[in-house]
Amino acid sequence: MPTRPEKESGAALHLSRVDVALSRKKVLKGIDLDVNPGDNWAIVGPNGSGKTTLLKVINGYQRVSKGEVSVIGDKFGETDLRELRKKVGMVSSFLNDLLILEDNVLDLVVSGAYAQTRLLEIPHGAFVQKARILLRRLGCLRYEDNKLRELSQGERQKVMIARALMPDPRLLTLDEPCAGLDLMSRESFISGLEKIARNNNLLSILYVTHRIDEIPGCFGKALLLKKGKIIASGNIDSVLTGRNISKCFDVPASVKKSNGRFYTIIRK
User: Fold this and answer.
1) For the structural domain made of 13-87+169-266, what CATH number should be given?
2) pLDDT value at 120 more than 80
3) 254 exposed, middle or buried (CB, 10 Å; 0-12, 13-18, 19+)?
4) Phi, psi (deg, nearest 5) at residue 228
5) Between β-strands 204-209 and 40-44, what pairing exists: parallel, antiparallel or unpaired?
6) Using CA atoms, how far apart are residues 176 and 210, in angstroms rounded to an integer?
7) Domains of the chain: which residue ranges?
8) Residue 262 pLDDT > 50
9) pLDDT, tens only, 176-235
10) Of 103, 171, 225, 258, which residue has the fewest beta carbons closer than 10 angstroms?
11) What is the DSSP string of 60-118?
């Protein structure tokens, strides 16, 4: 049986003292982050903490006001962002707003190979085959001929992950992927994501959420954001503590861990 490749050296993502200002207001302040190949990070914080802006920076959709950003060794300002986006998969409501709901599922997934959200050319046959493999892996192959509008929100999120994986990215970024999902759809989504994470030692995943109970059990790192600043960062067990969560969300809380998953308990 072939063995999986070992993790590579060097950072999949490097941010050094990154600031972002929007309308003269700083929304990210002095962000430092290094993500190694194969490490999976949960980025946690309340609404308005800067989580989505951070993902936009990483994906090349938001310029920084100050600081340095490198993805897979490519420094922003010295690389073609169109090529960079083939190395970074993105699942976000920011991209969902660009979708045409009359497009079919297979075409959307194949478009990811071209770092697009619409298929604008006749695709290479190998891309179509790969798209079907990814859809099958995520349990969505039966939807390949469906229109996007015919899918549930949970099904559409899985399809968007298949699209994001098309160019074999080294980094996968997920922005509140369970928002709006019911309990069964949420757990199905998390289970599928865990399979992807466990089966690819070279893929790093950044999972943005404000709910720690959504974080897959295989994630080993976490970062807490509040008002654009890092509250805590590092090994997930030392970051997701009652003290840190209370400070981040301004509520008295304790944290329980069960079967690898974290749960917040609000103290009265």
Assistant:
1) 3.40.50.300
2) no
3) middle
4) 85, 0
5) parallel
6) 8
7) 13-87+169-266, 99-168
8) yes
9) 988 888 898 888 889 888 888 888 888 999 999 999 999 999 999 999 999 999 999 999
10) 258
11) TSS--SEEEEEETTEETTSS-HHHHTTTEEEE-HHHHTT--TTSBHHHHHHHGGGT-SS
Alpha-carbon distance of 6 to 127, in angstroms, equals 26
Q: What is the CA 23 to chain-centroid distance, rounded? A: 26
Closest CA to 189 of 178, 203, 200: 178
Mean pLDDT of 37-59: 94
Q: Which residues contact 181 (CB under 8 A, 6 or more apart)?
A: 153, 154, 157, 189
d(CA 176, CA 200): 22
Residue 170 one-letter amino acid: R
HSE (CB half, 13 Å, CA atoms) of 227? 4
Q: What is the pLDDT of residue 196?
A: 86
pLDDT band at 9 (very low <50, low <70, confident <90, very high): very low
Query: Please, what is the end-to-end C-alpha distance for the chain in angstroms?
Result: 54
- Model-wide pTM > 0.85: yes
Reading the block at residue 31, the tokens are: 């962000």
Q: How many residues does the chain have?
A: 268
CA 163/CA 104 separation, integer angstroms: 12
Q: Is 184 exposed, middle or buried (0-12, 13-18, 19+ CB in 10 A)?
A: exposed
Q: Which amino acid, residue 267?
A: R
